[in-house]
Amino acid sequence: MTTTPPPSSLVLRGDDTTAHLDAGSGQVRWERDGRVARIPLAAVDQVRGAGGTVEVVLTTASADRPAVVYALHEADATTAAAFRNAVAARLPGRTPGEPPVDGQGLVSTVPTAVARAAERGPELLVMGVATVAVLAAVDVTVAVRRDSEFAVALPFFQVLAAVGAFMVAVVGRGLLESHRLTKRGITVVAELDHHTDTMKVYRYTDLTGRVHHYGDSVGGERLEISYDPHDPSRAAARLSPYVRAMMALTTLTGLCMAGGGVGFTCYQFARALTG
Questions:
Q1: CA dihedral defined by 88, 204, 63, 44, rounded to 10 degrees?
Q2: pTM score, two decimals?
């Protein structure tokens, strides 16, 4: 027998967006483009849409200012309808004559990694403590078996390696993704669809006529993007030669920092064990 999940624990996945209505949280979590927006139900004016589309419209304190809309597309139509109904049923009632609030001011946004880190706090804490313990053991070994001045330098190189690895993971991955899609993908001109609190959302159509959305913090009314023909929701904005050069330089710098930090640590530890 199939049971319907309770409205307080629905998860809705769209083309490039995932929405959560968590149990007892009083908010909708909106995950898109590496960021998570926590939208309190008190900030929501209405929920609308049809088929596989869900639009969460925030309240606005000014009648002449357009409301911010969080939109999710290409979800399963049945699940989308259940999600719309569940959110609408939990919206708090409005007192007649109550002044409207600025819904966007109630929304908090954090990077996806930060949000997931908060959810995985105990696990990440254990991993972090274990990593620090291993590095501390290496530093102590070098200080005891070689010279304390080498142990003093080691933490600096280890922090350098961590920063370099982060630069490669973020900037290098973005550069590689953009290069792959530009060379092998289909390039189109996307039209501005709507704004959210942190970015502009552009609309484009693939070869089958399906509509997709892409978020970017910069750009005008139009934005040239390239998408994967096998996965049209996977897209990247075309980068200018200057931006590509700066990203490549940043990635190369990160590689040098990571390699230098790890190499120096391993070398000093090996010398301490064999010396």
A1: 20
A2: 0.53
